[in-house]
Structure prediction request, 249 residues.
Amino acid sequence: MIVTNEYQILEKLRVTNSFSRKELYRAMLDSGLSVSEASFRYRLQKLVNSGHIVRVGHNAYNIMQENTRHYQYDYSEKAKSVIATVSENYPKIKFSVFELVQLNEFVNHLLAHNVIFVSVENSFGDFVFDALKETNPGRVLIYPTSDTFHQYWYSDIIVIRKLVTEAPNNRKHPWAARLEKLLVDIIADPLIINSISASEYPIIYTDAFQKYIVNECCLFRYAKRRGVENEILQLIKNETKISLRTRRL
Prediction:
């Protein structure tokens, strides 16, 4: 339980778009709290762990807004089976799993056919392919082109991709696709682009920002890596009412 003074400080900071560690520390000192740098780091981590404040970027924090939460997704049984196979056979490799029906939470036109994308760190794709094809014969594609993918696409097909460097990581479950990754990949990934109408982008982004905590630094760092940073900025500016906390539009 945090002390009353800390609640009062957070209420004052609630009106700000975002604040840094230094600004929070200064606010605590100005309010009369006696805090050393060491105790401040402890208090800050406690506030983050309790969910009272959330990270929205590099050295950027915001008060947890009512009705917003961290993104979590309950994978389908098929996707869970894929995750288990890769984890058990290659416990030390980095991989991420995203399934197309994850987007049904955000879109107006629901996706009837699922695709399970397994992004694997470079040079391990062949090994993962060998493991998955044993339990999913004829249902695994490795590094397909867009044409090949759409030619052989059918429900619950598994697609092995190369894991893009700087792709956002989920610390608790490293294989779980973070929301920031989803928001970028629907615009940047050639295999996903044709599966989602561009008219759905504003709806997806608006819903994601309203329901969940989006780390903007993570989002735009990955977007820059994939070459769609400006495209996403223009989408947010021109087609949504999203107010970014860490940069001006």
